[in-house]
Amino acid sequence: MLRASLLAAARSTRMRSLVEAVPVTRSVVERFVAGAATPDAVRVVRELTADGRRVTLDHLGEDTTDTTQAARTAEAYSALLGALSGEGLAAGADVSVKLSAVGQFLPVDGEKVALENARKICVAAADAGATVTLDMEDHTTTDSTLGILRELRVDFPWVGAVLQAYLARTEADCVDLSGPGSRVRLCKGAYAEPASVAYQDKSEVDKSYVRCLGVLMRGKGYPMVASHDPRMIAIAEHLVVDSGRKADDHEFQMLYGIRPDEQRRIAADGAAMRVYVPYGDEWYGYFMRRLAERPANMTFFLRGLATK
Ligand code: FDA
Q1: Of 54, 94, 119, 135, which is the active-site residue?
Q2: Is the ipTM of this complex over 0.90?
Q3: What DSSP assignment string belongs to 291-302?
Q4: CA dihedral sign of residues 265, 267, 270, 271
Q5: What is the Cα–Cα distance from 218 to 179, expressed in whole angstroms?
Q6: Could you confirm whether 94 is annotated as catalytic?
Q7: Which DSSP category does 198 fall into?
Q8: What pLDDT score does 308 carry?
Q9: pLDDT confidence of residue 303
Q10: CA distances in angstroms from 193 to 167, 196, 199, listed in the order given
Q11: Distance between start and end Cα atoms, the chain
Q12: In the chain, what are the domains?
């Protein structure tokens, strides 16, 4: 119930102005977001990579209906990749791109514009020695996002995508994307989805996650295990052994600010551990989804309010 309300609020412009106006919000947001500008992101990348963690960076923003804004987002990614290169931090880094931030929802030619902008980001990533992963948004965008992924992979075969275990279709998508060179980040899914397309029960989502993980681990691609869930991580570690995978042909991923000790533990054990680092001003939707997925995050936020 709370999750559904928070996810509805994540898309409400009225709630957005209310939440952004709360003085304590900024300090709580800082726990999950690297900062507002490119130098903030670069600083956090330097900190995380110093102890062996890898990074994927998200220039925050989504659902734009403005062509200029979509182009600006692509330029921001290019500037970020340039800044990381300048600091010697770009090789092996990844950027995570929401297609709705680069034009997918534009009323005219949205998919075409998103593809062109995503291509520009891929060119900048290739120049920097980095990779690109397409984030997955709500289920109405899945076919479009996977279609754009296919187009991008013709020229940039290393482009990856996110699949969400809560969708009933995802096991089949994992089969389709388990071939050589394919990079798939498997997560549980963060949006409010109807029962017609998504498992509603947490245990059903977890079972689907394990089935999807099995498909990806037995496949020939590069699985990226994106979860903070100790059970999912333990199962993934077993599947790595069972499927004979080596340390360099899969990785674990977590969000910035969540379970940092476990992130360091995984990296210290010799596995690849990548941290998803969001930065920028447009933190509202991202922040509300983090509150929705864990009551403790909400408590943290409310406690901050109460002490103000
Ligand atoms: P879940 O939320 O089910 O929690 C299970 C258990 O994990 C908890 O009981 C607790 O033990 C532990 N845990 C979780 N959060 C914790 C915390 N803050 N502190 C301590 N323990 C905690 N979603 C999407 O729809 N599209 C996308 O593109 C992406 N991209 C993405 C990238 C990466 C790198 C990650 C890690 C996640 C995403 N997500 C996403 C978000 C994802 O779908 C999901 O909402 C969150 O990861 C939460 O699900 P978990 O698997 O972490 O476990």
Answers
A1: 135
A2: yes
A3: HHH-HHHHHHHH
A4: positive
A5: 10
A6: no
A7: B
A8: 45
A9: 64
A10: 8, 8, 8
A11: 27
A12: 33-282 (3.20.20.220)
Secondary structure class of 51 (helix, strand, coil): coil
Which residues does ligand 1 sit against, CB inside 6 Å?
135-136, 162, 164, 185, 187-191, 226-230, 232, 253-255, 258-259, 276, 293-294
Alpha-helix residue ranges (DSSP H) falling in the chain: 2-9, 13-21, 25-29, 38-50, 67-86, 110-128, 142-155, 170-176, 202-218, 230-242, 260-268, 284-293, 295-306
Q: Mind listing the pLDDT tens digit for each residue in 34-80?
A: 999 999 999 999 999 999 999 999 999 989 999 999 999 999 999 99
Residue range 159-200, pLDDT digits in tens = 999 999 999 999 999 999 999 999 999 999 999 999 999 999
CA-to-CA distance for 200 and 206, rounded, in angstroms? 11
Buried b (16+ CB within 10 A) or exposed e, 264-280: eebbeeebbbbbbbbbb
Asked if the model's pLDDT at residue 220 lies above 60, the reply is yes
Could you tell me if 132 and 125 are in contact, meaning their C-beta atoms sit under 8 angstroms apart? Answer: yes
Q: Is the pTM of this model over 0.90?
A: yes
